[in-house]
Amino acid sequence: DTAVSQTPKYLVTQMGNDKSIKCEQNLGHDTMYWYKQDSKKFLKIMFSYNNKELIINETVPNRFSPKSPDKAHLNLHINSLELGDSAVYFCASSQGQGQGTEAFFGQGTRLTVV
Amino acid sequence: GNSVTQMEGPVTLSEEAFLTINCTYTATGYPSLFWYVQYPGEGLQLLLKATKADDKGSNKGFEATYRKETTSFHLEKGSVQVSDSAVYFCALVGGADGLTFGKGTHLIIQP
Predict the structure, then answer these.
(1) Helix (H, G, I), strand (E, B) or coil at A46
(2) Do B106 and A99 touch (CB under 8 A)?
(3) How many cross-chain Cβ pairs, A to B, lie less than 8 Å apart?
(4) Is the CB of B30 less than 8 angstroms away from the CB of A42?
């Protein structure tokens, strides 16, 4: 069983479109994250949710809107896609954010905006 | 806020060479420290971790020791293999910032 699964794995779309990436974890964790990894492999946290409540919201355009229908899911919706949104997006989860907390990552979604 | 600095790559070594990837951090209090590895086309996996000063994390022949006096968590392996080629991320958890990553070090091992 995949612990953190995200779909789709690849997403190619045109500028201006709206798209969603889904993430589900079956680990029973209470905290979920979205990270963006650029072409240089830099990882930047975008959002963090704990028990369906937003706890970290880094400076990202408001075109990005996370939605957490329940503790096991954190979906990422992106409006009006731009070329600069092309990247690999990773979902992750952890049990809390305390000392020693390990995060488990999905396989990533490679988004290409053309 | 917290921050992690690690040596930039790519780091290219021959098989069986000794590996060191440096990592230093800035954080308040007593963070937990991690090394994650990302193999080509995959997500990040935890490689090892240490939760308090002088702890040594180890896994798959890799080791790192939590040095509070030098705020460092350098990754070492005595004899690398081609299969170790990947991107390695140093990270920490501390305070309200959640999991903070370094910029990653691309390691290339040549046969």
Answers:
(1) strand
(2) no
(3) 59
(4) no
Contacts for B47 with CB less than 8 Å, ≥ 6 apart: B34, B35, B36, B37, B59, B60, B62, B75, B88
* pLDDT by 10s per residue, chain A, length 114: 679 999 999 999 999 999 999 999 999 999 999 999 998 889 988 988 888 788 777 778 899 999 999 989 999 999 999 999 999 999 999 987 776 788 999 999 999 999
State the nearest Cα–Cα gap between A60 and chain B, in angstroms: 16
Beta carbons of A9 and B55 less than 8 angstroms apart: no
Q: Could you report the per-residue pLDDT of B45-102, keeping only the tens digit for each?
A: 999 999 999 999 999 999 999 999 999 999 999 999 999 999 999 999 877 677 889 9
Find, among A80, A108, A102, A110, the residue nearest to A23 by Cα. A108
Q: Say yes or no: B34 contacts chain A, CB-CB below 8 A.
A: yes
Closest chain A C-alpha to B93 CA, distance in angstroms:
7
Cα–Cα distance between A91 and A32 in angstroms, integer? Answer: 7
Task: Measure CB to CB from residue B104 to each of A43, A99, A100 and give the nearest one.
Answer: A43
R_g over Cα of chain B: 13
Distance CA A5, CA A25 (A): 6
